[in-house]
Design goal:
The structure is a single chain. This protein has 380 residues and is of the alpha/beta class. The chain has helices at 12-16, 32-35, 51-54, 74-79, 92-110, 126-137, 161-165, 190-193, 213-222, 242-247, 260-277, 285-290, 307-318, 322-334, 340-346, 364-373; strands spanning 2-6, 21-25, 40-43, 61-64, 83-85, 118-122, 141-145, 169-172, 200-204, 227-231, 250-251, 298-300, 358-361, 376-379. The chain has 3 domains: 2-86, Rossmann fold, CATH 3.40.50.720; 91-251, Rossmann fold; 298-378, 2-Layer Sandwich (Ribosomal Protein S8, Chain: A, domain 1). The strands form 3 sheets. The chain has a 6-stranded parallel beta sheet with strand order 7-6-8-9-10-11. The longest helix is centred in the first third of the chain and has 19 residues, at 92-110. The structure holds nicotinamide-adenine-dinucleotide (NAD) and 4-phospho-D-erythronate. The site of nicotinamide-adenine-dinucleotide has 35 residues, from helix 5 and helix 6. Catalyzes the oxidation of erythronate-4-phosphate to 3-hydroxy-2-oxo-4-phosphonooxybutanoate. The active site is at residues 207, 237, 254. Residues 7-283 form the D-isomer specific 2-hydroxyacid dehydrogenase catalytic domain.
């Protein structure tokens, strides 16, 4: 069996080589020629799995080690009886950590007291739900817009899009879609952004095409820069709008989901799906090696300062989103000719998820706060 796998898929050789020959490839530039003799194709979000790529090939199974599936022509795969599996929720913790690291940065640099703000979320799927729950457990006033889930759970504060757009902090977690009753492409354009108020913080870690970048720049200018922006995803990746980069607080190269554990979980979920497709037993011993523990196991915390500061210190000890922003700005300045965006993603400096670390404190309220934001904690 021939397996083509994206070179950025962690553990690909280790997990898949007993099925057959694994060839690692650059997913962004993958061609039909490379794919045509493969039986199994394992991709990430940068490979457009279209008719052009796989028609006439021997591919019978496509796996994507990602949450998003907007790069896959699902209708084509199903019409041609090609099995497909993605990795729903694999990096939901990573993206949620990214959101709180972004807010921690806004507190540490600009004093944003986000815990007392009104929080609005767009999309209540695997990511949006986690983000919502962490805010709710932190005691924040939080609401969510998801027209497809509206009313599905009476304990959740579902609201209209306008209500979310009137919030102080807005976190975007909708998929990119071009059809259906509620397509998201360009869903936040000039008219919708009108509703934003001065001082709003926007965190965009879903897909780039959901927010109209020109309209966002215009709104920023209208508000005379009184806006906080944390952007991980961009309209024309891997090319990014440098005018936008120049005005945002945090610019990162689509790495919100790039925790070590999140990327490993993606590979593991696709491995399990392929075992199922091939009717082979899942080798659960492999899982122990497949998902790493964190590099820092315990943080001892005294808890001086306001709650945002206490949280920022511990969140940033595990993941400070500013490091990815600094790296991006530095690389774009130094290497203008190269594909900096993909280089940064390929050479990503590993980070762990918050839950891999215990918080040790002698104050019960600090433990609760840290549990709520995603750590594990225990009292002395
Ligand atoms: N930046 C990253 O690294 C990164 C990592 C993971 C996921 N993502 C993106 O985030 C998206 C969300 O992830 P997820 O795991 O929560 O996906 P999911 O499929 O579990 O949930 C998506 C949710 O969005 C809702 N939705 C659909 N159309 C909507 C609309 N018009 N308005 C509001 N909500 C709408 C759906 O009903 C669903 O509840 C993914 O599709 C992916 O594109 C980005
Ligand atoms: O949809 C996802 O899971 C994320 O966007 C994913 O982390 C993107 O990473 P990529 O597949 O491009 O390496």
């Amino acid at each position: 069996m021939k397996i083509i796998a994206d070179e950025n898929m962690p553990n690909a050789q280790r997990l898949f080589s007993h099925f057959g020959d694994v060839e690692l490839v650059n997913g962004r530039s993958l061609t039909h020629e490379q794919v045509k003799s493969a039986d199994v194709l394992l991709v990430r979000s940068v490979t457009k799995v279209t008719r052009e790529l796989i028609e006439g090939s021997s591919v019978r199974f496509v796996g994507s080690a990602t949450i998003g599936v907007d790069h896959i022509d699902l209708a084509y795969l199903s019409e041609h009886n090609i099995a497909f599996s993605s990795a729903p929720g694999c990096n939901a913790d990573a993206v949620t950590d990214y959101v709180f690291s972004g807010l921690s940065h806004l507190y540490m640099t600009k004093g944003l007291r986000w815990l007392s703000k009104k929080i609005g979320i767009i999309g209540y799927g695997n990511v949006g739900k986690k983000v919502y729950e962490r805010f709710a457990q932190l005691g924040c006033q939080v609401c969510v817009y998801d027209p497809l889930k509206m009313g599905s759970d009476s304990t959740v504060n579902f609201v209209s899009l306008n209500d979310v757009l009137a919030c102080d902090v807005i976190s975007l977690h909708a998929p990119l879609s071009r059809s259906g009753a509620y397509p998201t492409e360009n869903m936040l354009a000039e008219r919708e952004l009108e509703a934003l108020k001065p001082g709003v913080a926007i965190i965009s870690a879903g897909r780039g095409g959901v927010i109209n970048e020109d309209a966002l720049i215009k709104k920023y200018q209208q508000l005379k820069g009184d806006m906080h922006l944390v952007l991980d995803v961009w309209h024309r990746e891997p090319v990014i709008n440098q005018q936008l980069v120049a005005i945002v607080d945090i610019a990162t190269p689509h790495i919100a989901g790039y925790s070590k554990q999140g990327r490993e979980k993606g590979s593991w979920m696709v491995y399990k799906a392929l075992c199922q497709y091939l009717k082979q037993d899942i080798c659960s011993e492999r899982k122990q090696d497949a998902i790493s523990s964190g590099a820092i196991s315990v943080i001892e915390i005294k808890g001086e300062g306001c709650r945002e500061e206490v949280l920022a210190r511990s969140v940033q000890a595990i993941y400070d989103v500013a490091r990815d922003d600094v790296r991006l700005r530095y690389k774009y300045r130094e290497d203008k000719e190269k594909n900096v965006f993909d280089w940064l993603r390929k050479h990503y400096v590993e980070r762990d998820e918050l839950h891999t670390c215990f918080i040790h404190s002698n104050q019960a309220d600090l433990s609760r706060l840290h549990d709520a934001i995603g750590f594990k904690s225990y009292n002395k």
